[in-house]
Amino acid sequence: MLTSTKNIFPSFSTELVKEIETNAVIQSFETDTVIIRTGQYIKNTVLVISGKIKVYREDENGGEFFMYHLQPGQACAISMICATKNEKSQIMAKVVEDVELIMVPLPLMDKWMMQHRSWYEFVIDTYRSRFEEVLEVIDNIAFRAMDERLEFYLKRHAEVCGCKELKLSHQEIATELNTSREVISRLLKKMEQRGLVTLYRNNIELLK
Amino acid sequence: MLTSTKNIFPSFSTELVKEIETNAVIQSFETDTVIIRTGQYIKNTVLVISGKIKVYREDENGGEFFMYHLQPGQACAISMICATKNEKSQIMAKVVEDVELIMVPLPLMDKWMMQHRSWYEFVIDTYRSRFEEVLEVIDNIAFRAMDERLEFYLKRHAEVCGCKELKLSHQEIATELNTSREVISRLLKKMEQRGLVTLYRNNIELLK
DNA sequence: GATATAAAGTGACAATTGTTACATTGGTAC
DNA sequence: GTACCAATGTAACAATTGTCACTTTATATC
């Protein structure tokens, strides 16, 4: 596991990797597991070794608005932020591809900031990249109509899965964009007519 | 200025306040000044001593979507994040009430993280509170219709100005919510009919 | 007071999005 | 094959939001 930690987090110093190895716990979760719920107290900072996670913002009526993916080599910025203050989670995170996670207990997160330059830089960089990603999400919902938002959504998913075949149902997309299935079906049909996608059952092929 | 710094940032240690006093530059800007533009390189971390700032996300077509206020005792999280990597600004910040700012040069921002526990905690707390604020913005545009978003917008402005009389034109609100003036006029009229506000020229009085 | 101007009001209509209700299709289990 | 079910298609309509054109009102200036 040590060598793989070093591979997945190449910026970490050898001492930091050792610290992680001796102190942090590795946990595995299967696809569809909800790792963190809105309102739950966060006791660990989460680093992704393998697999994929989707992070959502929830509302009172059961809406699940998709914000961003977490992939190997990345960390949950929210878990860092909340961990330092022992606050409740503001987000919900769901496994979309079986994951192995490094769970760093709250006090270590803070301690390492002072002791390990590479940890400090990793944390700051995580804040930065997540903040930027969230700002991009704001761009989309503030400035763009649903057709463009859908295209952006599909592109992001294609990037993350590294393929052009998206195994998503219309309902799933609708839920994550907080709209209705009919709207998504309608817009996808238009995209198909424009030659951007080919539609199958539970499968959308991106053509461009 | 030293004593006032300590008053406005009470969590800062005496040594940190001294460091700020000797190293940081104080700058004043008048209302309506744009302090930071999208795409501009950020060379300082900005702390607010007095006055008020509004932070916006811009799009290519001139849209200015309002995100949050910065008030005395607060710092611009984006300027911290960008400063550490010498990155371009992702936001635009405009003075809405004459401000005095402490400009902390980029290298110090980083250095103090290791040397001053109170600085470290301030920075982390700034990240946390801004991230939470941005998530709340996402809630509003992702889950709520324009009428609710307008109410939320007015409430936030009332909180910040500490009064019930908002000196805002319909056009200004429309721009900051990325909609049209007519839509805002329409929704404000409905709010007036519901007894939530009284409308004047360049002035909206909140009744509840 | 007359005039100019920015702000706000308004009605009509278009476009987008949301909702309802139901039909069709593809895949799975029997 | 048949039955069943989830996914998708679709039409009709409602609601919200966006746009256009124009009017009215408040305020400042002359």
TrEMBL record, chains A, B:
<dbReference type="Pfam" id="PF00027">
    <property type="entry name" value="cNMP_binding"/>
</dbReference>
<feature type="domain" description="Cyclic nucleotide-binding">
    <location>
        <begin position="8"/>
        <end position="74"/>
    </location>
</feature>
<dbReference type="InterPro" id="IPR036390">
    <property type="entry name" value="WH_DNA-bd_sf"/>
</dbReference>
<dbReference type="GO" id="GO:0006355">
    <property type="term" value="P:regulation of DNA-templated transcription"/>
</dbReference>
<keyword id="KW-0804">Transcription</keyword>
<dbReference type="InterPro" id="IPR018490">
    <property type="entry name" value="cNMP-bd_dom_sf"/>
</dbReference>
<dbReference type="InterPro" id="IPR012318">
    <property type="entry name" value="HTH_CRP"/>
</dbReference>
<dbReference type="InterPro" id="IPR000595">
    <property type="entry name" value="cNMP-bd_dom"/>
</dbReference>
<feature type="domain" description="HTH crp-type">
    <location>
        <begin position="144"/>
        <end position="208"/>
    </location>
</feature>
<dbReference type="Pfam" id="PF13545">
    <property type="entry name" value="HTH_Crp_2"/>
</dbReference>
<keyword id="KW-0805">Transcription regulation</keyword>
<dbReference type="InterPro" id="IPR014710">
    <property type="entry name" value="RmlC-like_jellyroll"/>
</dbReference>
<protein>
    <submittedName>
        <fullName>CRP/FNR family transcriptional regulator</fullName>
    </submittedName>
</protein>
<dbReference type="InterPro" id="IPR036388">
    <property type="entry name" value="WH-like_DNA-bd_sf"/>
</dbReference>
<keyword id="KW-0238">DNA-binding</keyword>
<dbReference type="GO" id="GO:0003677">
    <property type="term" value="F:DNA binding"/>
</dbReference>
